[in-house]
Specification:
6-stranded antiparallel beta sheet; 26% strand; Beta-Lactamase; 638 residues; alpha+beta; single chain; 21 helices
Length: 638
């Protein structure tokens, strides 16, 4: 019997249900710890009805007494159930569900003997339901206030939801749209075109963006919509349909068409201007610029000194030869075609054409040209062209464009990297400020998280400061001290432990007691950066190998992964500031400073670092640092 009672109380405890017992003879309530806690009354002694009723919300007491009286009727089943509120000493209110059964004496006047019941706390459940309702309301308000039409279709393309904005776009109410397909609102020709596109999208089961389609408004006029959507699936991966938005771009399309017409008019005016300037261009003095003249057969007939300086050829070396000798093989055909077009009346205005120097160097020149005609104004005699060497300018522009791109990407990434931990810090600090009932453990967890995010921000700031030092020409500050290779690896032990369940880690350190004179913290930063890259760009469960070897005069450490690898072009840029091999939306987080800083740390120690990688076969990053003079002598003697 005792064992059965234990099992019963264990089940009640697991369900978070309290049990109680009321004795009519003593008018006392006996209950377990959970019931007592829900009433904020002691559980180690019996309590009176008066004490219990004092905790019940005044508005609920009469209902409880009425329900209890009904249960006391000897002719009733004796069971009752009701929800009620209790007020704790701190003023907080809990909502409880009480269930009970009245037991009646079987002899005499059938008087009530005792009541046995249970209590369940409904407060958390009601709070969650309220939060869910509020969340749904916020989502509905958001959907109904955005300018775009939000929709959902099932796997057959039939609308199952349409936001009220649909009325502003195509004139229909949501209930007029639900049950129909997008194609029901398109002209016949548009329906065929979009159906083919949508069928491919359904087959690929992929998101789609900015798909333009023409729809007929309820009043008959045409509306151009821009549609974007994403698929959604059930837990088994079965496609259930698509959700997305439609945006009215009718006015934008009209503006684009107007711009096209305007550009055509501008092109026509430019052509007229070129024709007007034909004779004026022949009067320009080309003496200070490279000038070349060729006849209708593309034979060079004039080659000035500025052109000699540009190409490295003397005039007598090229006079009488075809123009193609001046062009690199890779762009020769396109350059000759451009020249042929000048013979038919086309004029060059700032056309970029590569020039091959005599020594093999390639230069880029910006050209304009003019045709020289006979007295009849029709017969072409020659074409004259003037060039400006813009090679350095092109290179500078490319460097500037790349720098601007990388800086913009860097700023965006840094903003994101700062925003994520700052959001966490603000959220947890607000939690600590507004919830004074948090337990000590909850407060400690929140503070630990704030501390971790703050440290992440500090590391990012330190990386940016290191870049500033490098850009200013200063060397990174190093705190050199003697330590063993093993001590360096201890810096990354916490990181290795976090990755042990995600990747297979293999560490093989030869001569790990070797003493080196390094900044232990910076070397740990180097190693952790390389390991972070290795695990971040490797599939889960793959092998990451760490190898340490002693060689004459130094120690070499290599980190090898089985990731996607890199192209030679990516390897060449891997140490560039702000460079990130993957810049997609799903790329690994980071600001592209790590490898740039790593290189300067290694070189600051007098070491070298290099990358070996092959696309599809993984990447190995190796770096070295010199040994102390004493260690070199010991190794030589041994």
């Amino acid at each position: 019997m005792h064992e059965k009672e234990e099992r019963m109380y264990s089940a009640l405890d697991l369900a978070q249900i309290g049990a109680w017992y009321f004795d009519f003879a003593t008018r006392q309530v006996h209950w377990d710890e959970r019931s007592g806690a829900l009433f904020a009354l002691p559980a180690d002694r019996s309590v009176s009805c008066k004490e219990v009723l004092s905790r019940i919300h005044p508005e609920d007491r009469m209902a409880i007494e009425s329900r209890l009286q009904a249960g006391l009727d000897p002719h009733s089943g004796g069971n009752y159930q009701m929800e009620f509120r209790v007020i704790w000493p701190d003023g907080s209110i809990r909502k409880l569900l009480g269930r009970g059964k009245v037991f009646i004496s079987r002899d005499g006047e059938r008087q009530p003997v005792h009541i046995i019941g249970t209590i369940l706390d409904l407060t958390i459940s009601n709070t969650a339901e309220t939060a869910l309702a509020q969340s749904r309301k916020r989502f509905q308000n958001l959907v109904e206030t955005v300018n775009d039409w939000v929709w959902e279709v099932n796997q057959n393309g039939v609308y199952t939801y349409a936001s009220p904005r649909v009325n502003d776009l195509i004139g229909y109410e949501p209930d007029e749209v639900i049950g129909k397909t997008p194609f029901d609102f398109m002209p016949e020709s548009e329906k065929k075109r979009v159906t083919n596109k949508f069928n491919r999208i359904v087959t690929m089961r992929e998101p789609f963006w900015a798909m333009e389609n023409t729809n007929r408004h309820k009043d008959g006029h045409l509306v151009v919509l821009e549609t974007s959507g994403v698929p959604y699936f059930n837990e088994n991966g079965t496609l259930l349909g698509f959700r997305g938005i439609d945006r009215d771009i009718t006015e934008r399309k009209k503006t684009e068409d107007a711009c096209v017409q305007l550009n055509e008019q501008l092109d026509l005016k430019n052509q007229e201007l070129r024709e007007t300037n034909e004779y004026l261009a022949n009067l320009i003095n080309y003496a200070n610029a490279p000038i070349i003249v060729w006849n209708p057969n593309n034979i060079i007939t004039k080659f000035n000194h500025a052109f000699e300086h540009l190409t490295g050829h003397k005039a007598d070396e090229v006079m009488g030869k075809e123009l193609e000798i001046l062009f690199p093989q890779t762009s020769r055909d396109s350059s000759i075609n451009a020249i042929r077009r000048t013979a038919s009346g086309e004029y060059w205005e700032s056309v970029e054409i590569p020039i091959l120097r005599k020594d093999g160097e390639m230069r880029v020149a910006l050209w304009n040209s003019a045709n020289i005609h006979a007295e009849d104004g029709k017969t072409l005699i020659a074409t004259i062209a003037q060039g400006i060497d813009i090679t350095e300018r092109k290179q500078a522009e490319e460097v500037l464009r790349e720098s601007d791109r990388m800086k913009s990407e860097f700023i965006q990434t840094v903003a994101h990297e700062f925003r994520t931990p700052l959001t966490s810090i603000m959220g947890f600090s607000e939690l600590l400020l507004t919830h004074d009932q948090l337990s000590s453990e909850e407060q400690r967890e929140s503070l630990n998280y704030i501390h971790e995010r703050s440290m992440a921000l500090a590391d990012l700031v330190e990386d940016i400061l290191d870049i500033a030092r490098i850009d200013s020409g200063a060397t990174l500050p190093l705190k050199m001290s003697l330590c063993s290779v093993t001590e360096i690896f201890r810096q990354v032990q916490p990181f290795l432990k976090t990755q042990a369940s995600l990747h297979r880690l293999e560490v093989n350190l030869a001569d790990e007691t070797t003493l080196v004179n390094v900044d232990k913290g910076k070397m740990g930063q180097v190693l952790e950066n390389l390991l972070s890259n290795a695990v971040a760009f490797s599939p889960a469960g793959s092998l990451v190998r760490i190898q340490g070897d002693l060689f004459q005069g130094g120690y070499r450490i290599s980190v090898a992964d089985q990731g996607a690898g890199m192209t030679p072009e990516q390897v060449a840029k891997v140490f560039d500031k702000f460079y990130r091999a993957d810049t997609s939306d799903t790329a690994v987080e980071g600001v592209g400073l790590g490898m740039h800083i790593v290189k300067h740390i290694v070189e600051g120690h007098g070491g070298k670092i290099w990358v070996e990688s092959e696309l599809g076969k993984g990447t190995t990053v190796s770096f070295t640092f010199p040994l102390t003079l004493r260690q070199v002598e010991e190794n030589s003697n041994s």
